[in-house]
Amino acid sequence: MKIKKxxxxxxxxxSDKGTVAEVKKVFPKENKVIVEGVNMKKKHLKPxxxxxxxxxxxxxHPIHVSNVMAYDAKAKKASRIxxxxxxxxxxxxxAKSGKAVK
Length: 102
Fold this sequence. Notes:
Blueprint: E1 8-11, E2 20-27, E3 32-35, E4 40-45, E5 55-60, E6 63-64, E7 68-72, E8 77-79, E9 81-86, E10 89-94
Antiparallel strand pairs: 1-2, 1-7, 2-3, 3-6, 4-5, 7-8, 9-10
């Protein structure tokens, strides 16, 4: 999987299409990522001693990695990621601009 934690990504499909945000967590075995502010779900909480009113909590659910694309902030475009070897080191680069990721 070429998307890593902390990468800026753009959602390319679904109800949050076009959203640019940061990846909070990556699940490589499931090919899923959690993106900040995307795919929000609500969970109803029972009242407890710590929180006597209970309430409704809202949090992000994972989305499939095929639904996001790495976002190049300088070019202001979504791009695929390639690997190149520079000075004996494997480096991730944007396919459209050829610049290194981060």
